[in-house]
Amino acid sequence: MKLMYSMGVLMLFLLSGFTVTWFMFDARSVASYGSQSSTGLLPVLGDDADGEKKRTQQAPSLFRQVAPEHNHMFIAHALGSVDGVAETNSKEAFVETYRNGFRLFEADMSQTKDGKVAIFHHRARHHIGMSAGIDEVNLGDFLSHKSFEKFTLLSLEDLLDLMRVYPDMYLVTDVKSDTMYALSQILESDVVKAQPEIVQRIIPQIYHPEELATVLSLYPFSDIIFTLYKTPLTNDEVVLFVSEHPEITAVTMSAQMRFTENIYNTLKKLGVQMFVHTINDEKKIQEFITKGVGVYTDNTTEKVLQR
Hints:
TIM Barrel, two-stranded antiparallel ribbon, 11 helices
């Protein structure tokens, strides 16, 4: 009887030791995961070409760096200019602007009648000779035209494929229709499913504070730009919102209507990158760059990037 009692006590002792050891190991695992998450490198799952999940890592912010790359201070407006022609959103504009050293490209995005996303400013149909609005034609009809009768128009899939070919290109979205729909189309595209790391080079622009939570629910983007041309918020209200939401890493504003020394100094203290649009005069571009303020520009010649 005493022997059975002693064995029972021993078993309880061993079992309790195992439980404590397991608990400590589990706690260390949780702590380790929490430590990894705190670095900003969040595990992200995407689909590979076979539909299987593939793990990637969230990229570090371009704009939170102590000293951003010089050419990351310039955003090529509407994919840049080609042969001196601006606002084409064309393949040729991208290729020429990339060759000149630009790496950040803003592209206009509009939804077509058949629910596709075209790289196109909805008010620019005279560029391509369309008599109907972009939302009144199918994507195929749109792509059958040329910008200014000679430049190649792009679908969203075409532009994402350029990101595959040019792995150091970053895309700033400027959605003229439904922002969340366009971003979801990016995430669900065949190109991104095949090469999920492309999404790490997507930089969404939001136009209203309430869009932030929805954008982050789609994907934990490393950089999000709050662009101010649509919001009724005052500069003080913008600063308050940005200070409460560190997910916003940059603010874009009109150089004439919004930019002031006060908002410049306040956002600089918060570590938020500022951009102004759209500046084409080389002297003014340099004035902003010297202050650490980035620019959206149609002047995408090689010369403008030189310090």
